[in-house]
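Chapter summary example.
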Amino acid sequence: MANKFKLHAADVTVTSEITLLTVPPASTYLIGSIIVANVSVGTDTTVDLVITDSSQALDFNILKDEPMDATISKEILSRALILENGDSLKIQVADADTVNVLISYMDRSR
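The structure predicted for these 110 residues follows.
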């Protein structure tokens, strides 16, 4: 098994739900950190962060309508989160062009 440490950065430019990560076949992701930053100077917004568990075909909220004041960053995880083959991490914001996301993870591929 190969372990690769990765950083995924995303600028959320739309208000529709977007997929940040999807775990490919023969991989498991160990998410160590998710930082959500409202980079807008004057716009407060809200954030939804959702995990889709492909084995159950269900969505689970990590954040739901989480308020994000302008120029504030939040570390979302207090512990590591494991995503398996086919699982995905998605985000939706109330206001476009306000949020950046940084995801630090280990890709453990078989």
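To summarize the output: Strands lie at 2-12, 18-22, 27-38, 45-53, 58-68, 73-75, 81-83, 88-93, 99-109.
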